[in-house]
């Protein structure tokens, strides 16, 4: 890494009398999962490059409760939510950006009813806004002319109707965006949602991520773009299963942008 | 004796409509066994959804072949009902083609009914081929074995017979008009039945009248019978699609409701001044049941959903779990909910409206835990439904019961939840290490 990451925490910012423009909600995967941490760092590199005034909660952040809720444990979800809302409201947070569609959905849709009202955006929306405001510039770089297919995360796409922001960003990279047969509203799940990430699948004749990876590989892509750390894991495993990891990379939209700009 | 046909017609009409009303009442009672739904107040948006999705068939045409064929049958159903109105007036008052004085407009009307009737026949044949010859996989899933498949075909046969009766009636009528038979005033154009009519050209007036009257009576009696068949069939969607799309979701699909009963408990736990050993007040309500294990625990919109489902299987077709061979089928979730609702309804019937425990429930006796845990909560089923049914909400309610009332989550999920509880992440990492990534090299 060329430069060290600048990652201010909310506690530091407030102590210095500052009020950051946006809170970056890192999420559990983005904090702990080795693959997802790379996405987190790529996103921070872009934020640093564009000199965005942001902060993270750091050790004060805790799971949003999403996996507990989808698994049926409403009690644990609300305990997490109420605790997080106390921290967020304590800092007077107004706007949140996150690279995880599950955190995004929960913070945006399920926290307001429990007293947590924030403007919540997914990192692809945030980056697209920066692009439109001219605060970042995108270039093809090493991806110029490559074939990229984009996998819609369920909790970003169907759940919240965000289909265009990630595609607009990808298209700015001078690449050929090739759509899968099942995309957007009809995009197929990677197999991780609803708590499946943390358990073995039920008996069947195939794993969901293998089916979805096959659909992606049908487009003969150089890169499968994802916008969710869990989709990223599932698709990466799928590509490995098909022994294609030498030919096809699975990258987050933030990684594409950071790598194209050679950050 | 001159009024005998009118009296018989009136009786048939009263019996037909009476039985239908009785069935609708039963349907209402069964839906009301559910909890009142906590609905977002958005009448304008709801009305718009109903107009677009039910009237406008906007989600049917996502699949063009089935969509266009369905559109024909749907328009046929709506338009040909104008003809039924004429038949009812004629039947009650002994008139014949009471709308005939409309002249040229009547010609256009009858002509369009005929063309639609022919198109409906074509569509019904295509539908039958899809089910029985092409054998589309979604019509051959395990939950479709037996009655559901028979039901699907029976509906097609009834529609076919009704359309043939309608055209036969017109053909005989047209022939009688040309012969100048008494009562049969010259009215209407018959672009389709004129071909049937030419077969009848050698027949005597009395034979033709017999054919015309038989077809007329069988057609209207058939419609009344079909109306009463609805309650026993998957075909209720022709009526319930409208209220169902009205009451459908107006919030983002990813937003799952927060349980109020849980919020109360959580607030109590977080309240430092609350006395944990306080005895509940005398008049306190019994503690709410978390989640659902039977149809009475579901809300009324979910139960309306179950009656509205016409078992088309688009949900199951899009379900990632089903596509990869798991037992879960969102359509089966809806069919099971309806079957159990009917079963509870019968218990209510035999016990003067009070429920007597029959040792069964929706969970386990109909829907198994294996099906529930296969769901990825991806909302593909919700998106696919052409009439705004939400199978996912039922899956989630049943999961809540399993986890919060029975502590019966798969052990890996219990580990995940234990981790969230203890260290604020689904994996066993220390919360104090949450920012370590910022100091690591790339």
From TrEMBL, chain A:
Keyword annotations: 4Fe-4S, Iron, Iron-sulfur, Metal-binding, Oxidoreductase
Molecular function GO terms recorded: 4 iron, 4 sulfur cluster binding; metal ion binding; oxidoreductase activity
Stored Pfam families: CCG
Residue intervals of the Cysteine-rich domain: 22-108, 148-235
UniProt GO cellular component terms: plasma membrane
Protein name as catalogued: Cysteine-rich domain-containing protein
Automatic annotation (TrEMBL), chain B:
Record key words, sorted: 4Fe-4S, Iron, Iron-sulfur, Membrane, Metal-binding, Oxidoreductase, Transmembrane, Transmembrane helix
Keyword ATP-binding: no
Residue ranges crossing the lipid bilayer per the database entry: 6-25, 68-89, 109-129, 154-172, 214-232
GO molecular function: 4 iron, 4 sulfur cluster binding; metal ion binding; oxidoreductase activity
GO cellular component: plasma membrane
PROSITE patterns on file: 4FE4S_FER_1 (PS00198), 4FE4S_FER_2 (PS51379)
Pfam families in UniProt: Fer4_9
InterPro entries: 4Fe4S_Fe-S-bd (IPR017896), 4Fe4S_Fe_S_CS (IPR017900), HdrC_iron-sulfur_subunit (IPR051460), Helical_ferredxn (IPR009051), NarG-like_sf (IPR036197)
Gene3D superfamilies, sorted: Alpha-helical ferredoxin (1.10.1060.10), Transmembrane di-heme cytochromes, Chain C (1.20.950.20)
Domain 4Fe-4S ferredoxin-type, first and last residues per copy: 299-331, 365-397
Protein name in the entry: 4Fe-4S dicluster protein
Origin species: Zeaxanthinibacter enoshimensis
Upper classification of the organism: Bacteria, Pseudomonadati, Bacteroidota, Flavobacteriia, Flavobacteriales
